[in-house]
Every structure is written in structure tokens, then in C-alpha cells.
Specification:
Elements lengths: L10 H14 L5 H5 L2 H4 L3 H16 L1 H8 L9 H16 L4 H13 L2 H4 L2 H15 L13 H11 L1 H13 L3 E5 L3 H8 L2 E2 L5 E3 L16 E3 L2 H8 L8 E4 L6 H8 L3 E6 L2 H14 L4 E4 L10 E7 L14 H4 L5 H17 L1 E11 L8 H10 L3 E3 L18 E3 L13 E8 L3
Parallel strand pairs: 5-6, 5-8, 6-7, 8-9
Antiparallel strand pairs: 1-3, 1-4, 2-3, 9-12, 10-12, 11-12
The chain binds S-adenosylmethionine (SAM).
The site of S-adenosylmethionine has 18 residues, from α14 and β6.
Amino acid sequence: MAKSHKSPVNPVRQEAWRLLDGVVIGQTVLPDLLSMPQHQKLDPSERAAAQRLATATLRFADRADWALKPFLKKLPHDTIRNLLRLGVVEVCGEGAAAHGVVHDLVALAGRSNRTAGHKGMVNAVLRRAIEKLEGNWDKAPIPKMQKWLRKPLADAYGNSVLQGIERAHSKGPALDLTVKGDASQWAETLGGVALASGSVRLSSGGRVTGLPGFDDGQWWVQDAASAMPLASLAVTPGTTALDLCAAPGGKAMQLAQAGAHVTAVDVSEPRMARVQQNLDRVGLSAKTVISDALAVQDGPFDVVVLDAPCSATGTIRRHPDLPFARDGAEIGFLIEQQVAFLDHAATLVRPGGTLVFCTCSLLPDEGEVQISEFLTRHPEFSAVPPKADWIEESWRSDEGGVRLRPDFWADAGGMDGFYFAHLIKAMP
Ligand SMILES: C[S@@+](CC[C@H](N)C(=O)[O-])C[C@H]1O[C@@H](n2cnc3c(N)ncnc32)[C@H](O)[C@@H]1O
């Protein structure tokens, strides 16, 4: 058998590069790439390391580009650009030793005919960019979002808020839990802090499944912002509640924990299986229905929750792949779908009941604008400003909703971008 002349390469860096190309060139979000057989072939620790490295590289790609630019005669092909970004971020941001990283990435470039011709350039440019940035990581510019997202956000919030959001994105997310019992006690047990809104916050990292309280279902992972739409709603035992877009089940579990009789609907069978798994683990129950939200005819319900599919632009702290894999082209469709879901959800609320609308989007078109137009179309509904002493006045929006942004609670570690409104249906 002929001997291979290819030198062995680090499987984590190889996989991280594949993931980066999948996101940036293949326009596929990381979770989809992570479920592919090629990724599953690695052992679990390599999979986790590759995911961490690709995520960090995407979070700081703009900073890496800034460091690389002076040493590039012309912009290389995206796959080479990704390799360079990977090297800069792993060494300067993650603290890996430059020699090993550069050696490995040059070897990786050499393995394919498409990139082998760039080995020399990768070697030279990487070394110079690393020399420029190593030790100056925290002084380098905050990574900017992609143009397609910067423009509408600058229009909505102004440049100074936009920069605050970008700063929050560069810090990454904390790990927030919604707990069934006393938040202060769980914060003490887990070495975290109890947030004013009732979530427990841990500094990110570590295996969630190994933490006390996981096996006996004492809490579930849910960003503090995502828990707020229901943490600010009084739900009494026996309330009938419909969660129209339920997976992975964070809000359905909040409702069930408050004693509501919950019907959880989601169009995706595998995602609904996750809901059932989560319910089982935390020992809560809900009727689960796999269906298009628009086909639901049950009810009317005391509470209908519509956590609608959206651009997810509020979750970039935890999903820095999103602005690379998307370009905003789908937002028009999402907005129209939200209108249809809202109009249908309105028919499922009993008179005197509440429709909770939320999206994990930073775009007012998927939040404030959506609800002010809904209130014009549906005079039988009025927005009741959510009541909770931890809701700051500056979070409230004119039409009666609450706007949450990643730069809020910055000292405590920020939160996802979110929008929510509580809409009450008039009695006849
Ligand atoms: C933002 S997530 C919901 C998060 C969830 N409420 C929670 O708190 O854990 C949106 C969900 O809507 C579901 N979805 C998308 N299109 C749908 C449709 N036509 N009908 C019902 N669910 C849909 C997706 O499968 C996804 O699980």
C-alpha cells in the first residue's frame, strides 16, 4: 500500500475550520453543522473543543480581520480567511501557543489542492498578525456586527447603544437557570447569583448535566430575558394555558411550574421530543401536540403564549454564527408569519384572558411595530404594561411592551435581546 505523505493534523482545529467554512461559506447555522455525521465522528471532548473554538472565532472574527488586514495584499478566499481568523483567535484570544497553532494550520492548508498554494502566505501573515495582537487582545477594537444588521440596529437605537450591544456580544453569555425552588438558595448551592427577575446566573462553562439539581430536575437552562415574559405575569394554579411555539419548553415549564394546565404545541417532532424530555426531567406535565400553530383550534384559553419564530438577533451573544449564516433575507417572511400567528392566537384567548407575545429579536419590526399594528387590527385587545418591580422604566416601550437588550444589566453579565407584551382581550 502506498504511504500517505500527509502529516497528521490536530482534529480539533481541522473540525473548527470545517465548522467555520460551513457557517461562513455554506451559510449553515452551527447547531445544524454539529448534528452532521462528520462532526459526530469525533470523540466528545474533541467535538466540544472544536465547537468552542469555532464559536470564539466567529465571535471575534471582526477583530481577527482587523489584525490581519495590514498584512494581506488582497482579501483571500473565505476558506483561507477562516483559517487565518482561527489562528489569530486561538492564540491571541484563547491563549494557545503560537508555534503549535501556526504549524498546524499551515499543515492543514497543505492538505487540500484548493488551499496548498497559500501555505506560505498563511505562515507569514498569521505570524505577523499574532505578533501585533498577542498581549493586546483587550485593547483591540470591539468586534462589529455585519452590515445587514448594523444598519437597522443603528437606525433603531443609535450608534452608542449599537456599540453597547456589540460590547455585550463580545463578552458572550452567562449561564442562566430558571429554578423551581428558592433562587437565593440555588445561587448559593451552585456558586452563582440570584438575579432580581428570579433567574439564577452562573458564569458560563462546565458541564450543565454535572451540576447539582440537574438529575433531580430542580431547574432548567433559560436565559434571564427569555424567562421575563412569564416571570412578570401572574399565573394562578388551574389557569388554562396554550404555548403555541413551545420547544424546547422553557416557557411551558414556567407555566406548568405555576400550576397551569398547559397545552404545548410545536410544529417540529424532534423539537417536541426535547420538550417532553425536559418536562420529564423536571417532573412537570403538559399536553404536547405536534402541529402547525395556525391549525390549533382548541380553547379558548386563559393564557396564550406566542414565542414566535423570528430573526433570533437577540441571541447573538450565544450564537455568533447567526449573522454570518444569515443575511436578513428571511426577515420579511418571518414578520408576515408573526402577523398570521398573532391574528390566529388572538382567536384562541378567552375574553378577559391574556395573549403573551414575545420574540428573541432586536428588531423593532418583530417587536414594538408588530404589537402596535396588532393593537390597531384588534381593538378588542389592549396592552397592559407587565408588572414586576425589576422591570426598569427605560425598558418600557410606547405601545405597552418591554424591550430587552444585551447591553442591559451589563455589570451582572447582560441578557439576551428580547421583546414581550401582555395583551388582554376585552370582555364582551
Ligand atoms: C423561539 S422558539 C420557542 C421557544 C420556547 N417558547 C421556549 O421558551 O423554550 C420558536 C419555536 O417555534 C416553532 N415553530 C416554528 N414554526 C412553527 C409553526 N408553524 N407552528 C408551531 N411551531 C412552530 C419552532 O419549532 C421553535 O421550536
